[in-house]
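Progress note, sequence design subtask.
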C-alpha cells in the first residue's frame, strides 16, 4: 500500500522557519519525482515545489523561490521542504505527492498544517 506521511508543521511567527518531512512507503521512492502541494483555507491546491527522482532538478513557485528548499534522501525514502522567512500567506496544509507538478488524481498524503502568525 502506498503511504505518504507528512510531519513537521506547526505554528511559527513571521520570519521563522520550519522543516517539513514526508515519509514514503509502498513504492520505489527513488524512481519517482516528488512534489509539495499546499492548500490554504477557502482556496484550491497550489503547486509549491517539485524535485526529480535523483534530486538534481527542482522547481519552485515564484512566491517561495529563494525562501524554500526541497530535498530528498532516497536511502531513507523521505522528502523534505525547508521553509525559511515564512510569511502569513504561507499558512496552509502542506502535502507531498508522487509525480512532478499538480497532477489530477495524484497520490497525496494527509498533509501537515503550517500556520504563520504573530
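Output:
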Amino acid at each position: 500500500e502506498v503511504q505518504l506521511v507528512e510531519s513537521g508543521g506547526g505554528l511559527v511567527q513571521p520570519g521563522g522557519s520550519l522543516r517539513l518531512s514526508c515519509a514514503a512507503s509502498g513504492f520505489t521512492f527513488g524512481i519517482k519525482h516528488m512534489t509539495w502541494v499546499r492548500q490554504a483555507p477557502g482556496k484550491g491546491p497550489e503547486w509549491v515545489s517539485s524535485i526529480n527522482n535523483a534530486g538534481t532538478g527542482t522547481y519552485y513557485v515564484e512566491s517561495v523561490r529563494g525562501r524554500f528548499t526541497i530535498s530528498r534522501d532516497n536511502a531513507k525514502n523521505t522528502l523534505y521542504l525547508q521553509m525559511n522567512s515564512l510569511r502569513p500567506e504561507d499558512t496552509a496544509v502542506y502535502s507531498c505527492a508522487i509525480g512532478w507538478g499538480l497532477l489530477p488524481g495524484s497520490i497525496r498524503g494527509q498533509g501537515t498544517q503550517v500556520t504563520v502568525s504573530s
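The chain has a mean pLDDT of 97. Work on this subtask will continue into the next period as scheduled.
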